[in-house]
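Intended use. Records such as the Large ribosomal subunit protein bL33c entry shown here are meant for training and evaluating sequence-to-structure methods. They are not intended to support clinical decisions.
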Amino acid sequence: MAKRKDARGTVILECTSCIRNGVKKVSRGISRYITQKNRHNTPNQLELRKFCPYCYKHTIHGEIKK
């Protein structure tokens, strides 16, 4: 039997300010969160404000490809 395509899929959110600041100075890492989204309701890329432990503040985390 064929697998059906689920509407809800797992996505990875990555801090956007760590990526920009990581080029200029040495950072300890990049903050990433794993969450799920409904692909039918939100077909575009997901962006959420989450806490980044490396920046010590709430920043925008954008969806990345696996």
